Amino acid sequence: MALVEINNLQAAVGGKQILKGIDLTINPGEVHAIMGPNGSGKSTLSSVLAGRETYTVTGGSVMFDGKDLLELSPEERACEGLFMAFQYPVEIPGVTTSYFLKAAVNAIRKHHGEPELDAMDFLKMVKEKMALLEMDKSFLNRSVNEGFSGGEKKRNEIFQMAVLNPKFAILDETDSGLDIDALKIVANGVNALRGPKRAILVVTHYQRLLDYIVPDFVHVLCDGKIVKSGDKHLALELEKRGYAWLENAGAAA
Amino acid sequence: MIATTTSPDKPKAHSLIGSNYGAPWLHQRRSEAAETFNIIGLPPVTHEDWRLTNTAQIAKINFNAPGDGTALNSEQLGGLCLKKLGAQQMVFVNGTFSSELSSQGGAVEVLTLRQAMEKHSDRVERFLGREMPAQANGFSAMNLAGFEDGAFIYLPPDRGEMGMVHLLWITTGHNQPVVVHPRNLFIIGSNNHITIVQSYASFSSQPTLCNAALEMVVGKGAKVELIKLQRESDAAFHIANEAIHVHEHAAVQSLVVNTGGQIVRNNMTVHLAEPFAQATLNGLTLASGNQHIDNHTMLDHARENCPSHELYKNLLGGHASAVFRGKILVRPDAQKTDSKQTSKTILLSDDAVMNSQPQLEIYADDVKCTHGSTTGPLDDEQLFYLRSRGVAAADAGALLTYAFARDVLLRIWHTGIREYLEQFVAAELHRLHLDQAKS
Asked: Could you give the CA distance from residue A116 to residue B287 in angstroms, rounded to a whole number?
């Protein structure tokens, strides 16, 4: 069974139609990349899947692990195993990363009828994930994302992904604002989390990230629709020829 | 018992005048205060400083002196008692000192004002009504004329670390409205370090009026943390006039936590009277229902090189309203003043109202004065971030409001009272959220 089944998904924000019929099937173990020019609907797709209430679904459906995703609240989606790494992670002064993550871990465990972790068990569990992302343990006591550089914020997103162990992870322009060193660390973290039971959707504007997180499938989004799908070579072709190549093709079709 | 504002020529309110404890000077001072009250009356809503806090409701009620003080035993104090924090505790029940519930004879000489009139009469005569005079407003006048008792601390210079003193004011249940006038006077000698906590609690479903006054002088190089916990019932009115005089190189940190009362007005004035005197004024207000909580502060920078910092935070639900008015006066000699004022409010309901305003009067030309205010609901982006990680919406809101409140509490110097207040505030927030959920 497909893990994620997106069928003719249409969505609008502020009265403007952005997604005009997305069809996409993602199976466990697969890494899909979505690329597209600005305004194509990449962010909208991520936001709709995560459950942002400012976006309105105007048609179509999304099945996640056999469940109707669009019926679930954002916290229910997370408990069911969906994770989004934000493009612009918000700062939460006064709430430590450790407190926040423990609350998240335990909310999800509670949903599955598992016992909550106490502070010690939680710390043990996160220590190895921190090593994976080369994070200093002092960062656990800092307020969530407060004073973090762009690279630290993105690493924090992937660190949370490692801790929360989702079935389906959406990386929303995770490479934006990163230098090559930060990019490598983030990519290593993501690659370490690839597995036969997990699917990953990488939303990106630039091909560069896909050198490090090599996708199984690449889809190009133009004006709210997927206009072309292929494998990793499609990304390289786009790099050479630019988005206009496909935009024109889409217009002509 | 309380003259109305509209008839200053009513017969003199001699009933206002309290005992003179055998000192003619006190009787003189009280008479003058009563006279001042007769002239100025209670502040009308047309007075700029009281425009947002209408005391007419208070003026209409016929408040009586409390009964002979219901006896309370120490068990009944429950969580109000702070002896477990190592505090020297003085308890006043219905305005009357309770020696059974109090612990005098510790490192700090804490007396009642009555006792101080015998032991330190010169000091009391010198300082009473100096920092907080009757002229300040009608409530201050009423207090000076009619205060029953209060706490007196005199700390001689250079005694060092003096621990914590806890002053607990309890108004028990009555079947009629009652008024209590606590008056506190603290004279802290140079280079001392002390934490003074005041708790105000009431258990009456009838209206009560606590009209309090506090005067403190902080000697050179001394460090004082002053914490007030106002946790009276929803029927209570609480007016507090507090004034602090800070000497050279001394530091005062004040925190006022308001959770109770139907109308609360805290006036806090700090005179940074000498160079390198510093003050931090923090506030945390949790209100819901129809509560109205007003914090007015006045930071008077008289001399050079004084830093001051203010952080007042409010969490308002239901139909609650709150006011923050932070006045800062920088006199011509106050060069190199460095003052920062912040007011932050989270509105948990559509009907809650916040009124926040700085008021700066600057007469020196080499100063740094920054001020900022934010008022709004919980941050949507923060809420969504938490929910996207599996935290239920209600829990996310609770987490964020607790972090918001805790930010103020983390600044408390004294560890014991900080932990106590963290638990107290967590419980009050839980109650606040439950109230919100019901509405």
From this structure: 33
For residue A42, give how far its alpha carbon lies from the nearest alpha carbon of chain B (Å): 18
Mode of pairing for the β-strands spanning B96-98 and B88-93: antiparallel
- Among chain B, residues having any CB pair with chain A shorter than 8 Å are 379, 381-382, 384-393, 395-396, 399-400, 403-404, 406-407
The amino acid present at B422, given as its one-letter code, is E
Does A101 contact chain B (CB < 8 Å)?
yes
d(CA B378, CA B381): 9
Provide the pLDDT for residue B416: 97
Residue B52 near residue B323 (C-beta atoms within 8 A): yes
d(C-alpha A42, C-alpha B27), whole Å = 80
Q: For residues A213 and A206, give the distance between their C-alpha atoms in angstroms, rounded to a whole number.
A: 12
- Looking at the complex, does the CB of residue A170 fall below 8 Å from at least one CB of chain B? no
Rounded distance, CA B439 to CA B428, Å? 17
Q: What is the pLDDT of residue B8?
A: 38
Give chain B's mean pLDDT: 93
Parallel, antiparallel or unpaired: strands B368-376 and B338-347: parallel
Domains annotated for chain A, with CATH where assigned, are 4-252 (3.40.50.300)
| 3-class SS of residue B295 | strand
Question: From the CA of A104, how many Å to the nearest CA of chain B?
Answer: 5
pLDDT bucket at A248, cuts 50 / 70 / 90: low
Three-point CA angle B388, B393, B397, nearest 5°:
110
Measured distance CA(A160)–CA(B410) in Å, rounded: 26
B13: confidence class by pLDDT, cuts 50, 70, 90: very low
The whole-angstrom separation of Cα B30 and Cα B38 is 12
CB contact under 8 A, A92 and B404: no
* pLDDT tens digits, one per residue of B408-424: 999 999 999 999 999 99
Identify which of B216, B234, B235 has the alpha carbon closest to the alpha carbon of residue B225.
B216
Q: Are A93 and B387 in contact (CB < 8 Å)?
A: no
Chain B residues close to A92, C-beta within 8 Å: 382, 385-386, 400, 403
Q: Given an 8 Å threshold on Cβ–Cβ distance, is B395 in contact with A107? A: yes
Whether A250 shows a pLDDT value over 80: the answer reads no
Instruction: Give B408 to chain A, closest Cα distance, Å.
Output: 10
Q: What would the two tokens of residue B288 be?
A: 């819901």
Burial of A136 (0-12, 13-18, 19+ CB in 10 A): exposed
Domains of chain B by residue range = 14-274
Structure pTM? 0.89
**In angstroms, rounded to a whole number, what is the distance separating the alpha carbons of residues B68 and B148?**
12
Q: Can you spell out the DSSP letters for A125-173? A: HHHHHHHHTT--GGGGGSEETTT--HHHHHHHHHHHHHHH--SEEEEES
Q: How far apart are CA B282 and CA A252, in angstroms?
A: 65
Q: Which regions of B99-235 does DSSP assign to beta strands (E)?
A: 110-112, 151-155, 161-171, 178-180, 183-188, 193-202, 208-218, 223-230
Among all residues of chain A, which has the CA nearest to that of B379?
A92
Residue B242 near residue B268 (C-beta atoms within 8 A) = yes
Token look-up 């006064």 returns: A94
